[in-house]
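Researcher: Going back to the complex we discussed earlier. I've cleaned up the inputs and rechecked each line, so this should be the final set. Can you rerun the prediction on the complete assembly and write out the structure?
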Amino acid sequence: MISHRKFILDEKEIPEKWYNIQADMPNKPLPSLHPVTKQPIGPDDLAPLFPMELIKQEIAQERWIEIPEEVREVYKLWRPTPLFRATNLEKELDTPAKIYYKYEGVSPAGSHKPNTAVAQAYYNMKEGVRKLTTETGAGQWGSALAFACERFGIDLEVYMVRVSYEQKPYRKLLMNTWGAEVYSSPTDKTESGKAILAKSPNSPGSLGIAISEAVERAATSNGEKKYSLGSVLNHVLMHQTVIGLEAIKQMEKAGDYPDIVIAPLGGGSNFAGISFPFLNQKLTNGKDIRCIAVEPASCPKLTKGEFRYDFGDTVGLTPLLPMYTLGHTFVPESIHAGGLRYHGASVLVSQLLKDKLVEASAIHQLECFAAGVKFANTEGILPAPEATHGIAQVIREANKAKEEDKEKTILFNLCGHGYLDMSAYQDYFDGKLEDHELTHEELYAGLNELQTPRIER
Amino acid sequence: MISHRKFILDEKEIPEKWYNIQADMPNKPLPSLHPVTKQPIGPDDLAPLFPMELIKQEIAQERWIEIPEEVREVYKLWRPTPLFRATNLEKELDTPAKIYYKYEGVSPAGSHKPNTAVAQAYYNMKEGVRKLTTETGAGQWGSALAFACERFGIDLEVYMVRVSYEQKPYRKLLMNTWGAEVYSSPTDKTESGKAILAKSPNSPGSLGIAISEAVERAATSNGEKKYSLGSVLNHVLMHQTVIGLEAIKQMEKAGDYPDIVIAPLGGGSNFAGISFPFLNQKLTNGKDIRCIAVEPASCPKLTKGEFRYDFGDTVGLTPLLPMYTLGHTFVPESIHAGGLRYHGASVLVSQLLKDKLVEASAIHQLECFAAGVKFANTEGILPAPEATHGIAQVIREANKAKEEDKEKTILFNLCGHGYLDMSAYQDYFDGKLEDHELTHEELYAGLNELQTPRIER
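Model: Rerun complete. Updated structure for the full complex:
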């Protein structure tokens, strides 16, 4: 029997600096382009939406950026998060692999999202912003930002995709409890929303539409409101590196080091959070380590998308980002329940994948939910549907280690629990979910429509 | 700014023994009586329902009882749980009091209940039991036992009060994920259930009925099935003492010691878990400490009930227990949403209250929910409705400390998070909840009907 399962840190060991991978990338990310002029954007272009400190962080080249004391003080409500060795799962898989997981579900909002939400709310507060807007799909990001805004006395407007708004009253309620106003998107509060409603009054909404609404509300507020995004952007990914920085210390305590680091990828912040600090050791100290981002087979931008410029939202209000994308009009099949439905991937992860410094894997949802149930039945925690993608890949790697009879060490980020998002499990148990192999037409529908600049590189 | 918020223990510091308060009680609990003969029950009377080791623990007089290694191994999935100083809440209340809370919501089932569920499943497994039955109201106990049974390869049947079964599909789903079968009680699987359904086919069920069904299923299984209870019994309370034992070590790390220990009380296991180890220090070392059990004003057995023999269930199948009770037919008003609806209190807590070694307080639900929201808005975590009772009392004591300008140290047990039980908050925010002062008739309806032995003592 293995006796040590949990590796903990004292709150004094909460990282004092975020890790900025831009300092170490062999190929720096290409500039983002203005949606109209197609010229590289500068700080002034972003100033209506974001506070200056976050804009600076977006393009910063310093390797380490100090975490403000006030942000670390809020982190103490749940950080450092525990790192577990998954001994029960290892036994169940009868694998020679050693499996570790970092557990971010202990945060008040139940996921890794507050790591950046708190930082973003703090910098907005410091620059005098009193109102923020954002969008949320499943509700994880919206509740994380509601929690963070409550801490810093900021009013928050959340545009929640209508289908989630109706299916997930508890997510909305949690945001309300933390003082946020939540609207069912599309709304009649924005031109973007009105245009959609005029065409289809019963629109179920989409993340792309909700982003358009939240951005429009901030952009047209005469500077009263700013906007906040929960993934994709460089500063968001950087804030999440507290996860991997803690994990490095905890793996040391375990007397171990990962051969493979795994995390699911929607926009990229969860994957970046756990993997970038290990990539730092790979890029600067030559550590031999594989980092694998796992996406759903129904939204396979990393494994089947194109590396080119594309918009972050459906309507085309955001800057053009150089990224792996399926096209900003791509919508995953409605049968897909496992989260991670975003059409593109963050610029930083995209460039690293292009440069073969990280790997990608796409997995169908039935394998993911089966992995999630296996995890609940061995390690106890019911994982968020998004997190099950990482677990499915872990199981693949552990089985491979068994076939090859190799003792490998695998680390993954369990980014959140599933207790507030159980309708997907309900559908899984009820046999309502299916795997669907995307046809060539479905896969390239979004890309074929794209008018955005290609990247020759 | 107070810098240290979280006091953690290494998993090596998980207690090795449970604390049995029976060893230190100045007046030992009176014997439980057979429901028919009214004579003190012996081990043989309980053998059809419980494994022998738990029956021994029920009447054990040793002060310390060893926790089996296999149980501690499962505890490691979430124990030791963190102890926090509630600095944000202190600031919000502007109180000289120092407030600490032990947080049990980090367990896989989200509450303190797995502490005993794991122990009970283990002892059943050791004695060859392969099937257990139990009841659940809100679903917290059922999911804790489902998790525990899954760990030890035991099949579990859960009788879930129909109204919860219908309102809380996610609780049911969580139990299913951990392999339990869940039935909407009353069922047609038992004579107790059939009798109820014959009278009222649309019965919403009750905890008392569900207990009767679960007990009957075990009692009529020819020894194939045993029964498991999540609170009230002596061994259940003892298993929960890991909470207080850890808290003592953590308060030492904080360089502090509580003047007041507070917890909500339904059956008594949460209150016992945090307070009994401190009562050990009061009873054996003369420590000056107040322990306050908090009940809802709508189910005030401790503050307005009678200390006498009563049944544990509605139908009258269980032994007669010497306890504070409102009568086993008492049903809290349907407007009450805050949990803790049980008509009686555990024998151990009842005797301690009778002997003035602990105190009791009754609080109306609106004050409790307001306290819960204040806690979510300061400390981040949304508390379970049950836990809000403890928080309301903490706020009362902190306000009193402010009035008296005294620096007091208050510790409470945050027994669970509310993420799986948010419908009560929904009702609170929607203004659907009211406080109702029980009339004399309502309060004594159950007691006036009682035919059970009185206690002259």
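Model: Worth noting: The longest strand of chain A covers residues 155-161.
Researcher: Good, that matches what I expected from the previous run.
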